[in-house]
Amino acid sequence: MFPYYSGQRRPRQRRWIRILAITIVLLIPVYFSARLIGSKIIEAQMKSYTPFSDESPIAQLTVTATNTNFKWKVQVSTYDSSGNQVASPQTYLEPCDHWVLKASIISIQPWLALDVPSGWYMLTDLEGSHCYDQHGKLTTSIEKIPMDGSTAPMIQDGGFLNSVKSIPVASTYIQPDGITYNVIITPTSLSLTPTG
Prior knowledge:
The chain starts with a helix and ends with a strand. The longest helix is centred in the first third of the chain and has 44 residues, at 2-45. Strands 1, 5, 6, 7 and 8 form a 5-stranded antiparallel β-sheet that branches. The protein has one helix at 2-45, and strands at residues 50-51, 56-65, 72-78, 90-94, 96-108, 119-131, 143-146, 164-170, 180-186, 189-194. It is elongated and about 90 Å long. A hairpin with a 6-residue loop joins strand 2 and strand 3 (72-78). The mean pLDDT is 82. The chain is an alpha+beta fold. It has one domain.
């Protein structure tokens, strides 16, 4: 009885192996098609964002003193993903002497990022604190200067199988030292390094 039973088992095992192999062969194109479609959907949603690789310079920031009492010159230059300056530097005359640049960083899971960069960013605000009124009195107010993408809709965490992660980040504060700082982006932070 035992040999007959084991003989019956072999054809069943082979049948299951064939079914499993066919299933795997059929699922491979479905998997890659889903990745490609998912990547294209994500790329379409990222129109307001700029792709980046690790530790890319994305802007320059300078704060300098002026001859005007309680006004400081804040200058920002932004760059595209190739490192080219996007437009002429934007200059603001503001009553605050501590400034920070803020951004939103989007990370896409590598398994979904087929032909699409896994890191994207959008500069959101240039924020000044330690501000003064017209009489030179220190106030608690905060100056917010919207950056190019700050009116665009922000992408939220989640998506298909939590494939998209959104992280709000900020650089350290700089004061009116007249030094131009490169703004460097990483997947989790903004940092400032003096030029030259």
